[in-house]
Design a protein that fits this description.
Length: 152
């Protein structure tokens, strides 16, 4: 967990938390965004992380584990448009890696759109290496770059 009181894991998200995270998911990922109900289900098995400013959710991430495997998977990471470029994404990632390290996770995988320069840059800066590019992973014409970093 992060030392920063405004960034950390949400163990028992309230409905307001889930609704705020869903709003941010929809803002960042449009039709691919998760609903609050789906986030509530995922929270039964995944780890949710949020960054708050003045109580408002301004960043969020979701990490899921894999049955029988030591790698965790970063399902999503987003910072609200007006708060990007101020290091919040990097701080969220560092909080996640510290939390996963304490849980004995060996590595963290993610996928990102190869043309998403801000995200790819951030992930490389935070220690993720390129593993493979998979064409059509999210559907026809929607390739994803798979990246991985060791934990911690
Ligand atoms: C990706 C995202 C989470 C980054 O959050 P953030 O809070 O802006 O991240 P940070 O401020 O910690 O770092 C951003 C870095 O990218 C850099 N950056 C920003 N825009 C960039 C661009 N167009 N090209 C290259 N680098 C860029 C910044 O300069 C910064 O690097 P620096 O610290 O060396 O200056 C945010 O842009 C976002 O939510 N995007 C929409 C959702 C998304 O694409 N999520 C990733 C899905 S895999």
């Amino acid at each position: 967990m992060s030392d920063d009181p405004n960034i950390g894991r949400v163990d028992a998200p309230t409905w307001d938390d889930l609704a705020a995270i869903a709003d941010l998911d929809r803002e960042a990922f449009r039709e691919d965004g998760l609903t609050a109900a789906n986030l509530g289900l995922l929270a039964q098995a995944a780890r949710l992380y949020v960054a708050r400013e003045e109580g408002k959710v301004v960043g969020q991430a979701l990490v899921i584990g894999r049955v029988g495997r030591p790698e965790a998977f970063l399902f999503g990471l987003a910072v609200t448009a007006g708060r990007r470029g101020r290091g919040l994404g990097a701080r969220l990632l560092r909080a996640i890696v510290a939390d996963l390290a304490a849980a004995g996770v060996a590595s963290l995988d993610l996928t990102v759109e190869p043309g998403n320069q801000a995200a790819v840059w951030l992930y490389e800066k935070e220690g993720f290496g390129r593993v493979a590019e998979v064409p059509d992973l999210l559907g026809p014409g929607r390739p994803r770059l798979i990246m991985r970093r060791p934990v911690p």
